[in-house]
Design a protein that fits this description.
Helix content is 42%, strand content 21%. The protein is α/β, with parallel strands linked by helices and 224 residues long. The chain has 2 domains: 121 residues, Response regulator (Rossmann fold), CATH 3.40.50; 93 residues, Arc Repressor Mutant, subunit A, CATH 1.10.10. The strands form 3 sheets. Strands 2-1-3-4-5 form a 5-stranded parallel beta sheet, sandwiched between helices. Strand 8 and strand 9 form a beta hairpin. The chain is elongated. It starts with a strand and ends with a strand.
Length: 224
């Protein structure tokens, strides 16, 4: 559940905003004073801030400036003043939106959802996990799962599996595999490739699926 901080000195307006946002699955806190609102914004974990411009203790512009020094979460300004100069100033301080009172609570909810969706898309790193049917390979954690169950792999077995799975439906020669996984300084010979391939196949067999094909006269191919 996304947490939202509403910094608004008009309790009635703040509670109306909270009620609409709560009804849409958000968890909202309210603060009616500028300095205490800033303290909560900086020291608690919020996904978005809704800030009135005119506040006792500290105005919304200063609050937004201080938040932006520490956090990137979206900021929506609310104000009874609709002057362009205020909008320009607010957006220039790093706010994401500026709404003029009176406003539709449903429009506020729509804007909150839009800004959170955009922020999540910008801050969520792309997944590097490979998923091939029942098999999932996480190169960062160096784990491989079959139907959610982790299979035990040695370091070389994992490297071999990940290399093959990263090149699906491509025939890779034994020489290519040996050079990539064992390298130029490897102790042993190319026959170790076949040994490790068989070990990986045995461990993937719990899936009941075939992942690694033998390409006769060449090497191996991972079936994507």
């Amino acid at each position: 559940m996304k947490k939202i901080l509403i910094i608004e000195d008009d309790r009635e307006i703040a509670e109306l905003e909270r009620d609409y946002l709560d009804a849409n699955g958000f968890d909202c806190d309210i603060d009616t004073w500028g300095t205490t609102g800033l303290d909560r914004a900086l020291n608690e974990d919020y996904s978005l801030f809704i800030i009135d411009v005119m506040l006792p203790g500290m105005d919304g512009f200063e609050i937004a400036r201080r938040i932006r020094e520490k956090k990137r979460a979206p900021i929506i300004f609310l104000s009874a003043r609709g002057d362009d100069i205020d909008k320009i100033r607010g957006l220039g301080l790093g706010a994401d939106d500026y709404m003029t009172k009176p406003f539709s609570p449903n429009e506020l909810v729509a804007r909150v959802k839009a800004h959170l969706s955009r922020y999540d898309a910008l801050t969520t790193p792309p997944s590097s996990i490979l998923k091939i049917r029942s098999l999932s390979i996480n190169p960062d954690a160096r784990t491989a799962d079959i139907n959610g169950q982790t299979i035990s792999l040695t370091a070389k077995e994992f490297d071999l599996l990940y290399y093959l799975a990263s090149h699906p439906n491509r025939a890779l020669s034994r020489e290519q595999i040996f050079d990539r996984i064992w390298g130029m300084d490897a102790i042993g010979d190319i026959s170790t490739v076949a040994v490790h391939i068989q070990r990986v196949r045995d461990k993937l067999a719990v899936s009941g699926e075939k992942f690694i094909d033998t390409v006769w006269g060449v090497g191996y191919r991972f079936s994507g």
